[in-house]
Structures are given as C-alpha cells and as structure tokens.
Amino acid sequence: MTAIGDKLMPASVDFPSDKQRLFVRYFTGILIDLVVLNLFDEFSDRVTIDSFSISLLAAVLLQFLLKLTIAVEHQVGKYFRARTGRTMVFLRFFFAWLVLFGSKFVILEALSMVFGDKVKFTGIFHGMPALILVVVAMLVAEEAVARIYRQLK
Q1: Which among 31, 37, 61, 123 has most CB atoms closer than 10 A?
Q2: Domain boundaries, the chain
Q3: Taking the complete model, does pTM exceed 0.90, yes or no?
Q4: What does 24-45 look like in DSSP terms, one character per residue?
C-alpha cells in the first residue's frame, strides 16, 4: 500500500469493466425500485404487495420493463429523427408519448399475469394512475441518485 497524505491507497486500482458497471447500474435501479414500491405499499392504500420477496421480484420485473420501454422509445425516436419535416417531428413526439403511456398498460398486465393478486394497483381506471405515480417516483428517485453519484467525482 502507498501512503497518500493521511490516507492509505492500494498500489494499483482495477477499474470496473463495462459488465461490472452495467451490473451495478441495474442492481442499484432494482434496489431503488424496491424502496419506492415498498414505500407506496406502506403509505398508500392504492398499492398493495403481499410480501417483501414479492416486492423484490416485482422490482426486478419493473426494472426490466422500464428499461425495455425506454429502449423502444429511443428506437422510435431514432427512426423519426432520421427523417425531416414538421410532420416527422410531430410523429416523433406523438409516438414517443404513445410508447411511454401505452407501456404502462403492458406493465400493469405483466404484473397481473406474473403476480396475480399479490401485487395490486387499485383505484380509478384499474389502478393505472397509481401505477403511473409509482413509475414516475421510481424514475425520479433513480435520476436523483444518478445525479448525486455524478457529483461525487
């Protein structure tokens, strides 16, 4: 070990690989989603999850589906960005909105298919506003953690 100032540092530092960075990114996202889900379960009567282990599995599924949604939205945007004209700009935003909004129906159905009554979003429109609120809270929390992380350089 090499002494630097008052701190001891290893003689060499192995920088993380791309796979390691990706793992940490998704692992952190799942943990953030888990916290958000459980906070809504505890403090909202619109979100009900039977157990912690079910909420962990739901967080993994949500993380996967949200990343898939964002990837699809980026591909749709890329398709329309390659074309010119006001109509293409309108279509890019319209289809991005359609993918982002429509994905919530897919997510709600996927949660229902996988977990049945063990994960419930209730209220008007079969719990859609509750799900949207949870997803927005997850995305805001993930972005907040990412911004804090970037500031630590």
Answers
A1: 37
A2: 17-151
A3: no
A4: HHHHHHHHHHHHHHHHHHHH-T
Q: Give the separation between CA 29 and CA 25, rounded to whole angstroms.
A: 6
Count of residues for the chain? 153
Find the mean pLDDT for residues 73-91. Answer: 88
Give the Å distances, CA to CA, from 99 to 57, 96, 121.
24, 5, 21
Q: Strand 119-121 to strand 47-49: parallel, antiparallel, or no bridges (unpaired)?
A: antiparallel
Asked if residues 36 and 149 have their Cβ atoms less than 8 Å apart, the reply is no
Over residues 22-80, the pLDDT tens digits come to 999 999 999 999 999 999 999 999 999 999 999 999 999 999 999 999 999 999 989 88
DSSP element (H, E) containing 125: none
- Residue 86, token pair as written in the block: 């006001």
**Residue where the block lists tokens 């791309």:** 18
127: number of Cβ within 10 Å: 19
